[in-house]
Amino acid sequence: MSRRFGKSRGRRPGLWKPRVGEEYTVKILEISRRGDGIAKIRGLIVFVPGVSPGDSVKVRITRVGRRYATAEVVSEEAE
Question: 59: helix, coil or strand?
Answer without folding.
Answer: strand
